[in-house]
Design a protein that fits this description.
The structure is a single chain. The longest helix has 21 residues. This protein has seven helices and four strands; from the N terminus they run H-H-E-H-H-H-E-H-E-H-E. By secondary structure, it is of the alpha+beta class. It has a four-stranded antiparallel β-sheet.
Length: 200
């Protein structure tokens, strides 16, 4: 959307069996299993554009993207490997770095709330989470698998500095995108009836 589109009438929602089917089968992929091909530059830009169409109270856009290709992630993983040795479980901390290096593309979503704004910071953080989910849907719509995760380096101050995370920002998620050689297996899903309260 451009400024010229502002105020344009958007089409009303219509039933879509295809969208229902996609949502019914939505499944995060194991990040380590994501491989090439990954999205092209044009497809990445499309994924970001679609991801940014998210609920956002106040139109604040309280988040930003960092697109990480294979080269940048290889360098980051090398530096993170040294930090992994200082984690409570060094072996596990080092092992999860393969989630960062295996996929052909990673989009780092940073929550960047505007402090002191009338829109509560919690709502701004929720918007960043909604962006992460939208990016997964957008990647799926273009035929790619995706994985939304965080790991220890999402919370380690020294690691955050490596990723260029600002003092007032937090990692909402690493969205890993690529292709799966084999379909994912279904996992347990919640008993929606047990999680739902009806009030007339």
């Amino acid at each position: 959307m451009t400024d010229a589109d502002l105020g344009a009438t958007l089409p009303l929602p219509v039933p879509s069996a295809d969208m229902q089917d996609r949502l019914a089968r939505r499944r995060s992929a194991p990040a380590q299993s994501l491989t090439t091909p990954g999205p092209s530059r044009t497809e990445i830009e499309r994924i970001l554009l679609l991801g940014a169409r998210t609920p956002d109270h106040g139109k604040l856009f309280p988040w930003r993207f960092v697109v990480l290709g294979p080269q940048s992630r290889a360098g980051l993983a090398e530096a993170l490997a040294l930090m992994a040795a200082r984690q409570p479980d060094p072996g596990k901390a080092a092992k999860v770095l393969s989630k960062l290096t295996a996929p052909p593309l990673t989009i780092l979503v940073l929550s960047a709330p505007i402090a002191g704004h009338k829109v509560p910071e919690w709502e701004q953080q929720l918007s960043a989470g909604a962006v992460c989910m939208n990016l997964e849907h957008a990647a799926n719509a273009l035929g790619y698998a995706a994985s939304w995760i965080t790991d220890w380096y999402s919370y380690d101050p020294e690691a955050l500095a490596l990723f260029g995370v600002g003092a007032d920002e937090r990692v909402a998620g690493f969205i890993h995108i690529g292709t799966l050689a084999e379909p994912s297996l279904e996992r347990p899903r919640p008993d929606v009836a047990a999680k739902t309260t009806w009030r007339d």
